[in-house]
């Protein structure tokens, strides 16, 4: 899957483990259950979907608000610089910071007190969202600089294209498995996503 990075020449990324992404989806879906229910008044069956990659100098996590039968999505990205040779911070620490940064943006987008904003989330134009971070914008999370951005890309489409390619190209599937194994080796210690954390 191709996620736009802050460093265009950063090279190819390896996808984050599926079990980690599933956990992120579950945490956010539980946290923003009321917002998703309120959003369903303006679109059909909205849900949250997580994606992410580790690049040689950067870790990116993305969470999309996906509507059933719509190609466009509203995607919030969290990005942080990464040094694979450093023992600290761990990948989990960096991802936890990205989760918090994305959570703060989603809390604004899925605010049940703002019917007007909820309606704008499902509109085709991001300009309706006003102060949303359309370019990479730095925020401080736990004394660390995280970059956030929002756009209308739907990483699910890229994922489907990757899956189709993997099914029809045995070499691509084998390479994907090798990259996945390398990425999962980085997930050894560190804190996980806090399922009890609330975003406001």
Can you tell me about this structure?
- This protein has helices at 18-31, 33-39, 91-109, 115-121, 155-168, 170-185, and strands spanning 14-15, 47-54, 58-66, 73-81, 137-141, 144-151.
- The protein has 200 residues and is of the alpha+beta class.
- It has one domain.
- Strands 1-2-3-4-6-5 form a six-stranded antiparallel β-sheet.
- Strand 2 and strand 3 form a beta hairpin.
- Helix 5 packs across helix 6 (170-185).
- The longest helix is centred in the middle third of the chain and has 19 residues, at 91-109.
- The mean pLDDT is 82.
**Strand share of the residues?**
15-25%
User: Structural class of the secondary elements?
Assistant: alpha+beta
- Morphology call: globular
Mean pLDDT: 82
Sketch the topology as an H/E string, one letter per element. Answer: EHHEEEHHEEHH
**Total individual domains:** 1
| Number of separate strands | 6
Largest sheet: 6 strands, antiparallel
Count of helical segments? 6
Helix content: 25-40%
Strand order of the largest sheet: 1-2-3-4-6-5
pLDDT < 50 runs, ≥5 residues = none
| Cα-to-Cα separation, first versus last residue | 30 Å
What's the alpha carbon Rg, rounded to whole Å?
17 Å
């Amino acid at each position: 899957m191709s996620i736009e990075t802050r460093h265009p020449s950063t090279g190819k990324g390896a996808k984050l483990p599926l079990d980690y992404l599933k956990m992120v989806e579950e945490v956010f879906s539980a946290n923003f259950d009321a917002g998703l229910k309120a959003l369903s008044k303006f679109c059909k069956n909205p849900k949250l979907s997580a994606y992410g990659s580790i690049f040689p100098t950067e870790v990116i996590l993305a969470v999309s608000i996906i509507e059933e039968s719509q190609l466009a999505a509203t995607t919030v990205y969290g990005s942080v610089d990464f040094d694979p040779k450093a023992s600290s911070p761990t990948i989990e620490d960096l991802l936890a910071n990205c989760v918090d940064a994305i959570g703060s943006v989603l809390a604004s987008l899925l605010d049940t007190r703002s019917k007007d904003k909820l309606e704008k989330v499902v509109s085709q134009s991001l300009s309706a969202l006003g102060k949303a971070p359309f370019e990479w914008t730095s925020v401080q999370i736990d004394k660390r600089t995280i970059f956030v951005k929002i756009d209308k890309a739907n990483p699910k489409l890229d994922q489907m294209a990757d899956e189709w390619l993997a099914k029809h190209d045995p070499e691509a599937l084998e390479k994907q498995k090798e990259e996945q194994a390398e990425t999962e080796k980085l997930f050894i210690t560190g804190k996980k996503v806090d399922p009890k954390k609330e975003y406001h």
